[in-house]
Design goal:
The chain is α+β, with helices and mostly antiparallel strands. The protein is built from 3 helices and 9 strands; from the N terminus they run αββββααβββββ. Bound molecules: zinc ion (2 copies). The site of one zinc ion (ZN) has 8 residues, from loops.
Length: 168
Amino acid sequence: MKARTVVLTLVALLQAVTAQAQTKIDASRDGVDRESLMMTPDMTSPTPAPVAQHSFACASCGQAAGVLHLFGPASAGEVTRDSFSSRSTYKVAPESFERLRTIIVTGDAHTLYEFDLEIASFYCPGCRACYCGEHWARWNVFDDEDGFDWHDSIRGRCPMGHQRMLED
Ligand SMILES: [Zn+2]
Ligand SMILES: [Zn+2]
């Protein structure tokens, strides 16, 4: 009799576990549905589309050296730069917004460098050309101040041997 009770209990347990597993599957299905719902565009807060964008190609290999995206409005402009050194976002002063927009639309890397050398971290003014991370030899510069090694900047050397500060 005791053994039979154990078997019955086991069967009941198995049924319970199966039912639970089924519930879990349903729950995860529900989760997937909710996620796909969240993927649909939300009209109340649309992802801002860039006002201008440009991918600057490496003069040595043609790969992307740096990609810029400019976001408006001009009163609160921001530019993002993706390159081998880092991805960075910079605020754009309202009076500079149109100028930067033109630079990015035309892909004028030299004027971009004159506008802000850090945004144009992939550009060599000596060559008047852009290079990707494969073609910039680069190293960190530490500033020894009060006995601490502060990470000061990233310097680089282009394939032609020109050196510049890539990021400060
Ligand atoms: Zn160079
Ligand atoms: Zn390259």
